[in-house]
Design brief:
The protein is 49% helix and 14% strand. It has five helices and two strands, in the order ααββααα. A hairpin with a 2-residue loop joins strand 1 and strand 2. It is globular.
């Protein structure tokens, strides 16, 4: 499915360019010394974004586990959306 939507991956110089093409990078506004970063741009295919997000959520690595723990600590257990989605009870 990803191959059909993206096509030839070699046309992108780097993985950053591929993410940017598909709208997975945050908006970036910069003026002189002020920088604002927003939500992802969502400019590419919805199907590719959905597939990539699903793949990352299912993949468990030490880094993802560490990031999840860091986010839970920062914003609290009750506000973490994947805890409800996967039925995680603390």
């Amino acid at each position: 499915m990803l191959v059909a939507e993206i096509g030839d991956v070699r046309r992108f110089a780097s993985d950053d360019r591929l993410c940017s093409w598909n709208g997975l990078t945050p908006r970036h506004y910069e003026s002189d010394t002020v920088v604002h970063r927003g939500h992802i741009t969502k400019q590419g295919s919805k199907l590719v974004r959905w597939a990539v997000v699903e793949a990352v959520q299912r993949k468990t690595t030490a880094k993802i586990g560490h990031d999840r723990a860091r986010i839970e600590t920062r914003i609290g257990h009750q506000r973490v959306p994947w805890r409800r989605q996967y039925g995680v009870v603390s």
